[in-house]
Amino acid sequence: MTYSCNILLGRITKASGYEGAVNVKLERFFIENIPQMESVFVEIDERPVPFFIYDYEYSGTDILKLKFTDYDTVDKVSEFRGCKVFLTSTSEIVDSNDDFAAITGYEVYTDDNILLGHIKEIIQNPGQLLLNITSTDKREILVPLHEDFIVLLDDRGRKLVLKIPEGLTDIN
């Protein structure tokens, strides 16, 4: 499991019920866009602690109910109130046509830390989102926005790092 401190799923607001479940108030990106998860990291005392998910329930609002493996009482989870919950890998990001508009203006880097440019817009093609990137030399570069290409999405730093297949940026 990889700790991805830049992909905040949400924050635990309270224990839910008597069987050890917690309510997680979701970040805006994940509302109606819940990724498939086997595990998460809960930040306890500013350190990531891995938890395997036994079960989860989403009601369609901004609250996700999580139940962790081996945590079956309210006493065991009550200390998690206020803790941040992070995804364990960037591969758990799920495409969403509506929510990716928020990354317009982000800087785009390759996985070799080379600045490609800034995201000008998100183009919605049938079945595929495209990043329209204005390069450092003012060219337009079109890159498919796919979860397999995303290495890092840093909302605070407004930065997107992509692992782009060789030659893809040359065909634009």
Task: Characterize the structure shown.
- By secondary structure, this protein is mainly β.
- It contains one helix and twelve strands, in the order E-E-E-E-E-H-E-E-E-E-E-E-E.
- The strands form two sheets. Strands 1-2-5-4-3-6 form a six-stranded antiparallel barrel. The protein has a six-stranded mixed sheet with strand order 10-9-8-7-12-11, with no helix packed on it.
- The protein is elongated and about 60 Å long.
Number of domain modules:
2
Residue share in helix: under 10%
Measured between the Cα atoms of the first and last residue, the distance is 35 Å
Given as residue ranges, the uncertain stretches (5+ residues, pLDDT < 50) are 90-98
CATH class of the largest domain: Mainly Beta
Short summary of the structure?
The protein is an all-beta fold. The protein is about 0% helix and about 45% strand. The chain has two domains: about 10-90, RimM (Elongation Factor Tu (Ef-tu), domain 3, Beta Barrel), CATH 2.40.30.60; about 100-170, PRC-barrel domain (SH3 type barrels), CATH 2.30.30.240.
Name the descriptors.
single chain; 172 residues; mainly beta; Elongation Factor Tu (Ef-tu), domain 3; SH3 type barrels; 2 domains; 6-stranded antiparallel β-barrel; elongated
Element layout with pairings:
Elements: E1 8-16, E2 21-26, E3 39-44, E4 47-58, E5 63-68, H1 74-77, E6 84-87, E7 107-110, E8 115-125, E9 128-135, E10 140-145, E11 150-154, E12 159-162
Parallel strand pairs: 7-12
Antiparallel strand pairs: 1-2, 1-6, 2-5, 3-4, 3-6, 4-5, 7-8, 8-9, 9-10, 11-12
